[in-house]
């Protein structure tokens, strides 16, 4: 761009220009030419003053870049935040703790607790279940968990594990067995090792050795490898049932070859040897 005259200032560039470099060329004829080199950076204005110097809009240059934040979408019927779920859980625990041990009374209170909710308060119910478990209120744990499952909510491995533990503590083995069979036939691809260990420990607590072997058969079919504690329980069940050969094969396949001992204040890894009664090793 070429401009003549230097007695006044000119607004050279639009707001999209940030920086200007000005070169002055003198000719013998007395005319002055202005040649500008432009770097395009947004939101700054450049001017030429009377002395031929480039002046930028310093206020605009000092402004920080502000990132545009997308608008938050609000859904009236899909409230996903967990605000206030702790208070709701404590309120639920308080309500059902004061009720008699009757299914109708407890279920009625639970239905009333969710009557004005736009969606099922799953987070609050899960927290209430955890509080009841911590306090050892096993009957209430069973009632709340069954109510959640009847509503089609909370069908997770964590809920099943808590319910199996409550059945174990409340000595309701038949219901635990029914729940386990339902889990095996429904969740064929997602049964956790912890849940398998839970059902084996439940049968072991009640001396049901044959049920332990059946649960182990389910684990093999599902492709779940038992942990160390479950291996000991299953091996003990084979021995009590007089199936020593199967026990040896089972331990050879699943028992860890290494164990850890504490020696002179240090944790030492040593090879495990299973000794028979005649003194030989497996």
Automatic annotation (TrEMBL):
What InterPro entries does the entry give?
EMB1417-like, TPR-like_helical_dom_sf
Protein name, as recorded: Pentacotripeptide-repeat region of PRORP domain-containing protein
């Amino acid at each position: 761009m070429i401009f003549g005259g230097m007695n006044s200032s000119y607004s050279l560039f639009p707001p999209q220009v940030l920086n200007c470099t000005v070169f002055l060329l003198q000719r013998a004829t007395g005319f002055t030419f202005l040649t500008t080199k432009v770097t395009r950076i947004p939101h700054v204005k450049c001017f030429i003053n009377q002395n031929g110097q480039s002046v930028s809009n310093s206020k605009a240059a000092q402004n920080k870049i502000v990132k545009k934040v997308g608008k938050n979408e609000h859904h009236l019927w899909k409230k996903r935040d967990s605000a206030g779920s702790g208070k709701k859980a404590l309120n639920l625990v308080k309500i059902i703790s004061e009720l008699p041990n009757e299914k109708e009374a407890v279920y009625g209170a639970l239905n009333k607790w969710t009557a004005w909710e736009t969606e099922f308060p799953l987070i609050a119910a899960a927290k209430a279940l955890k509080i009841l478990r911590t306090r050892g209120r096993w009957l209430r744990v069973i009632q709340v968990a069954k109510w959640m499952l009847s509503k089609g909510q909370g069908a997770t491995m964590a809920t099943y594990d808590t319910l199996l533990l409550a059945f174990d503590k409340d000595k309701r083995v038949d219901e635990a067995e029914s729940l386990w069979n339902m889990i095996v036939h429904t969740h064929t691809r997602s049964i956790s090792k912890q849940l398998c260990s839970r059902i084996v420990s439940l049968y072991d607590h009640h001396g049901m050795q044959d049920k332990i072997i059946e649960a182990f058969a389910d684990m093999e079919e599902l492709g779940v490898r038992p942990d160390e504690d479950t291996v000991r329980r299953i091996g003990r069940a084979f021995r009590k049932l007089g199936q020593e050969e199967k026990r040896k094969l089972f331990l050879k396949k699943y028992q860890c070859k290494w164990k850890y001992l504490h020696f002179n204040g240090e944790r030492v890894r040593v090879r495990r040897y299973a000794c028979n009664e005649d003194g030989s090793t497996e």
